[in-house]
Amino acid sequence: MSEQHRYPIIAVEDDPETLRLLLRHLHAAGYAADGFEHGRAAIQPICAMGTGIVLADWAMPEMDGMELCEQLRELKRLEALGNIYFILLSAHHSKEHVIQGLEGGANDYLTKPYHQGELLARLRVGERMLRLQEEVFRRSIEVHKANAQMLILANQLEQLANTDVLTKLPNRRRLFERLHDTWELSRREDQPLSCIMLDVDHFKHVNDTYGHEAGDLVLVHVSNLLRPAVRRPDLCGRFGGEEFVVVCPTMTAEQAVAVAERIRADIEAKPARTGDTTIPVTVSCGVASRDHQTFSVDELLKNADAMLYAAKEHGRNQVWLHTAAGPRGPEASSKCLGEGASGSTTASSSGRVRDRRSGEAIAIEYRDANSDHER
User: Fold this and answer.
1) Pair 283, 170: CB distance under 8 Å
2) Sheet containing 193-200: which strands, arranged edge to edge?
């Protein structure tokens, strides 16, 4: 016989002489076997055995073989028992009893008096079945483990696909996804939605003067100041180059201007540092909100971009707001923050801003405190 691992056996038989003979045969065949005279006495040892084989006589006092089998199947259903191969022993030879025993939960049925060779052959079948169950379980564990690893890898790939490598902020792809989602929700629920577009001022000068590594440091510095400046529902990300976008669900235009102004002031007050070198950093901001004249995400971004362009054209380091009545310059942020008008003298003027992507000219009216046309 194969030297494979043999499973423990518990024999349950109410006749002491028959039980002793059965245990003698099992021990002689190399099995570790224990015997009990009724089902109730065998339940605890069977639970402690874990995986193994149970040989039980049908007709016994207190708890017969069928009742024991039902109890064990219930314990298995409750995951309080290992894999048990149950062989029901009976003096009944009729097919009706065999069918009743098997349908009652037994794995096999052996009539008494049994042939020793037949008993051992049925035990080997039981062992093969238990090994197959263990192999299926082992492979299912491996499959679950592989699936978990694939899920982790998929999440990592999705994170990489949605994250800017340098700043670790959401990238342009993720920003567009979030914008489209929040746009649909805003339209469906008739809630406000605002967008802040900001751009680092004189970024080419930073690269030319301090080097591209310093330029990268400035971008990381700005991203680190952006994160704590926005609410949990908001999403800030790198739109491309030195340009960032903040998506602000449920936020009105005035509220978004106030946020943009706080971001602008915070960045201005906290220069970037590399070694002993301090690099002044400022940003220009354009703000737009969904309104009855804005029909798509592209239009929302276009409006915010036009306001960013206006901020660049009229002095940088300021916040401009797109409204249905026309663009509003730096005084809009002062009003939104409750600070009143700027100390600078402002003059009314008008002009045209050209959309940076489409080249389309957009008429604007603004109050400009500073006229700095250097790009």
Assistant:
1) no
2) 235-240, 243-249, 193-200, 283-289, 319-321
- Whether the pLDDT of residue 354 is over 80: the answer is no
pLDDT digits (tens, 9 = 90+) for 178-189: 999 999 999 999
The mean pLDDT value of the chain amounts to 87
Which position has the token pair 């259903």?
77
Strands 108-111 and 235-240: unpaired
At a CB cut-off of 8 Å and minimum separation 6, what does 74 contact?
none
d(CA 309, CA 375): 10
What residues are labeled active site?
A: 242
Q: Residues 18, 90: contact at Cβ < 8 Å? A: no
Strand, coil or helix: 167: coil
pLDDT in tens, 53-100: 999 999 998 899 999 999 999 999 888 888 999 999 998 888 999 999
Output the DSSP codes for 278-313.
Answer: EE---EEEEEEE--TT--SHHHHHHHHHHHHHHHHH
- Dihedral of CA atoms 212, 216, 218, 220 in degrees, nearest 10, equals 180
Task: Label residues 48-71 b or e (16+ Cβ within 10 Å = b).
Answer: ebebbbbbbbbebeebbbbbbbeb
- Provide the residue type at 26 as one letter: L
